[in-house]
Design a protein that fits this description.
about 500 residues; alpha/beta; Rossmann fold; Dna Ligase, domain 1; five-stranded antiparallel beta sheet; four-stranded parallel beta sheet; 16 helices; globular; manganese; ribosomal S6-glutamic acid ligase activity; metal ion binding; ATP-binding; ATP-grasp
Amino acid sequence: MTEHLLLVEKASHWKGHVNGYPVVTAAEYLKDPIWQQKRGLRIVNLCRSQKYLGEGYYCSLLAEARGHKVIPSVRTLRDLSRKSLYSLETEDLDKQVQRILGRRHKGVETTSFSVTMMFGNSPLKDFQPLARELFELFRAPLMRIVFEKKADWRITGIKALGIQDLSDDQQDELDDALNGYLSKRWQAPRQKRMGRYDLAILQNPQEAMPPSDPKALKKFVRAAKKYGLDAELISPKDYGRLSEFDALFIRETTAIDHHTYRFARKAASEGLVVIDDPDSILRCTNKIYLEELLKLHRVSTPETVIVRSGGLDELEEKIAYPIVLKVPDGSFSLGVYKVENRQQLEQVSRKMFKDSDLLLGQAYTYTPFDWRVGIINRKPLYVCQYFMSKDHWQIYDHSSVDKEGDFRTFAIADAPKKVVDTALKAANLIGNGLYGVDLKETENGIVVIEVNDNPSIDSGVEDQVLGDALYEQIMEEFLVRIEAGKTPVSNSRP
C-alpha cells in the first residue's frame, strides 16, 4: 500500500484533521535516515520556503532523488518562480479567464482579483474548470492565482503557497481537498507534444569559460548540415525567436536562476527537442540532489555530509580535515573551498549559508587527474583525463593566470572499463541526454564526483580521438529525436 507523507516547516503549522497521514517537518525529512531509506512514498510538500535553495525546495529536490513521488516537483517550483516561465503555459487559458471574470464582474469597476486554489479545487464554483486546468499544468498543492484587467482579464500572477499562508477559515477546505487528492491515483502533469528541422545552438560570446570554443561550435554547425539540420548560433537576446526552431542545443554554462534554464524550459514547452533538457539541468546543477541519487543507487562517491546551518559539529565528527565545502550549484570549480580547520570552516560556511540553506561537506580526495566520460543517449562518447592545474588541488585555479591543467583523451576501448561502466551507471540515473561524468580513481576504487549536464566539448580536446565524428554523433542524435518527436528523457518521478 502506498504511504503518504505531509511536509511542513514546523509541526505547529499543521492544524488539520485529516487522519492516517503522518506529518513530518522539513528538517526531519532532510536529516532522518528513515526517510532516505523508505520506498514508495507519496509526499505532499506544504512548506512555504520553496524559493530556490530554500528548505522546502530541498525537500522536493531530495524527494525526487530518493525516488519518492512529490508535489510540487522541483520543475514546478522553478516554473512558478518566474512569470516568464509560467506564462508560457497560461496564455491558452486567458480566453477562459476573460469569460469567467467578464461575466462575474460585469458592470463592476474591479481591475484585480485573486483566488486560492487547493489541489485543483476552487472555493468559487465558476472557477472550478480553470482550477483543474491550472493544477494539470502546475502540480502545486496550494496556489494563489492573481487576475488583472487591462483591456481584458488575464492571469498575471501564480504563487505556490505554504500551509501557514492559509487562514483558519480555509482549514476545512484544505482537509477536504487533501483527502480528495490522496484518494486518487497519482498522475504526472500534462506535457505538450513536439514537432519538426532547424537547430538553434545557444552560445554566449561574452562567457569567460564556455563549454565549447568557437572552433567546436563551427564543427557542430558543419556536422548538422551532414544530417539535414540547418544550425544557427543564437545568443541570449534571441529568446523570443525559439519558436522558429525545431531543436535547441545549449552550449552555454547552465544554471537554474539563469536565462539558460529559461531557454530550455521555453523550448520544451513549445515542443522543441532540447539538450540540455530542463529536468537534466535541474538535477545535474545541484550537487546535493546528485549525492542523494548516487547514494540511493549504490554509486560510490567521496564520503559526504549534507550540512545545515548549525551542523558543523556533525560534519567534523564524520569527516576529518581537510574538508571540501561545496555550494550546491557551482560549476568549473567555482563555489568549492578546501578548509583546514574549524576556524576556516566557520568563516567559509558562514558566507556560503547566505546563498543556500544546505551545503555539501566532502572528504578531501586528491588525485593528479580526474576522469571525464562524455555520454550521449546512454552510450559513451569520449573519455578524457583532466590534470590538476599547476600547484593547485583542482583542475581550474581561478586565482592564477595559468589556471587550467593539462589533458589526455582516450578511445573508449582504451579507457579503464570500470571508469566507463561507473560513469554510465551514474549518467543513466539522470536520463538519456548529453552528460559528462567526473570520476576519481582512488586506492578504494572509482568514485563519482559529479554528473554535468553541459559537458565541455572543445576543439582539440574532447574530440582529439574521434575528430569530426564526435560532433556528428551528437547531431545524428538530434535528427533521430526530431524525427521521433521527443526530447531527452530524465529518470524523474513526477
